[in-house]
Design brief:
By secondary structure, the chain is of the alpha+beta class. It is 37% helix and 19% strand. The longest helix is centred in the C-terminal third of the chain and has 22 residues, at 320-341. Zn(2+) 2 binds at residues 111, 146, 410. Keywords: Hydrolase, Manganese, Metal-binding, Zinc. InterPro entries: Amidase_Cbmase, Bact_exopeptidase_dim_dom, Peptidase_M20.
């Protein structure tokens, strides 16, 4: 293997050879997913808890695969796992293919893991075709993407890039009282280095970050198409622990005397839903989600006007200016509701994630390659946030492919067909061969 980049142009493999090399990985794909599923059953579904036993198993499985294949394996400050096929020029900016290996509680088997397995399939195909890339090709198994566990976005990817705020290390996991810093240390990472802003990945040394992911809605199923080329990753603003304070009263209290916290929250929800409808009618895609929405279980009852109400809120869109406008309008509306209903909103800690613009050249090449290979695709904005957005925020070119998936995600019923997954892997490997082969 040469240590310098060859100046001789190399022809891409014949399309039939590429397809055969990808199809030969069917056993790898099915074995990897089956092993993950058996080891991380959540009864129901899958639970690969962030910095817990489930996620740790997935990272061990990835590392063991890399060692068995003679690839380079390393771990960084946040215990992210890297499996690398060395290139002809080890000093050239590397290509990273990756996604996360954690899951929500009682989720599905493919959310996140599909992107890691896609990278392994691409590397195996390169080796089978005898292609030594001009630069390192790295598969990155990312920690802690699912923000449900610590209510912090992109923990693993931002730690690797040196962009995780130090305060995030004091966040506590929802099912215990231990900090993120403690969990990272237990996993073999170095939270003190993360706190100092140290980074494992320098954006200037990354050629691109590519992520394959199941679609988390039903557009591909509805369209009858196996793969989509991502047009953008939404940003968001979030209030994970918002509350409304009013006054508990007797069920017969006249309306003019009430300080009904539940009605105030319902009014906000109805207003946001109407705003969402108007924005979509104007061609501006966005989404609003109240993940939690409930009265105080220690006080509520059939004959009590609720004096307290709790909710979580996620608002997402593809344009940072749209997000800013939506939040400004929402805060103004909250002020009106407070004055009219004599209640007080305490939104609590605010979290956010930046919009992730995709690299148009890579995305166009994905579409062109799929057409050449006879694989039907559609353009599709991501409905969800992804680690790719953290790389985009750091200045790294990103692109994503979505794979058709029945029944949505974040539930036990995710159902991705291997044929659809291999179609996405074929598009990915075709681009890699043409770009860095």
């Amino acid at each position: 293997m040469s240590s310098t980049r060859s100046s001789i142009p190399r022809a891409a493999p014949a399309e039939s050879d590429l397809v055969a090399a990808i199809q030969a990985q069917r056993g790898l794909v099915e074995d990897f997913f089956n092993t993950l599923a058996l080891a991380t059953k959540g009864n129901p579904g899958i639970t690969r808890d962030t910095y817990g036993p489930g996620e740790a198993f997935a990272h061990r499985l990835l590392a063991e695969h890399g060692v068995a294949r003679g690839l380079l394996v390393e771990q960084d400050l946040a215990a992210n796992t890297y499996v690398t096929l060395p290139g002809r020029d080890r000093t050239a900016p590397r290509l990273i293919i990756g996604s996360h290996l954690d899951s929500v509680p009682h989720g599905g088997n493919y959310d996140g893991a599909a992107g890691v397995v896609a990278g392994l399939v691409a590397i195996e195909a390169l080796c089978r075709l005898g292609v030594t890339p001009c630069c390192d090709v790295t598969v990155m198994g990312i920690r802690a993407e699912e923000s449900v566990w610590f209510q912090v976005s992109y923990i693993g990817s931002r730690s690797a890039l040196g962009t995780l705020p130090a305060a995030a290390l004091e966040a506590r996991r929802i099912d215990g009282d231990r900090t993120l810093a403690g969990h990272i240390a237990d996993a073999g990472g170095d939270p003190d280095a993360i706190r100092r802003g140290a980074r494992h990945l320098d954006p200037a040394t990354i050629r691109a970050f590519l992520e394959v992911h199941i679609e988390q809605a039903a557009t591909l199923v509805e369209s009858g198409v196996p793969v989509a080329v991502c047009t953008g990753v939404p940003g968001n603003f979030r209030y994970p622990d918002a509350r409304v304070a009013g006054r508990h009263d007797h069920v017969g209290t006249p309306r003019r005397f009430r300080r009904d916290a539940s009605m105030a929250a319902v009014e906000l929800a109805a207003w946001l839903d109407a705003m969402w409808e108007r924005e979509e009618a104007a061609g501006i895609p966005m989404a609003v989600t109240f993940g939690r929405f409930h009265t105080d279980p220690t006080m509520h009852g059939l004959t009590t006007v609720p004096g307290s109400f709790c909710f979580s809120l996620d608002v997402r869109a593809y344009d940072p200016d749209v997000l800013a406008r939506l939040e400004t309008a929402m805060l103004a509306r909250i002020g009106e509701i407070e004055a009219r209903r004599n209640v007080r909103f305490a939104l609590g800690t605010r979290a956010s994630a930046a919009v992730g613009p995709v690299d148009p050249a890579i995305s166009s090449a994905f579409t062109a390659g799929a057409g050449r290979l006879g694989i039907r695709t559609i353009p599709l904005g991501s409905p969800a946030s992804h680690d790719a957005a953290a790389f985009a925020a750091a200045g790294v070119p990103i692109a994503m492919l979505f794979v058709r998936n029945e029944h949505g995600s974040h539930n036990p019923d995710e159902a991705m067909e291997t044929d659809d997954f291999l179609a996405a892997c074929t598009i990915l490997a075709d681009w890699i061969c043409r770009e860095v082969g």
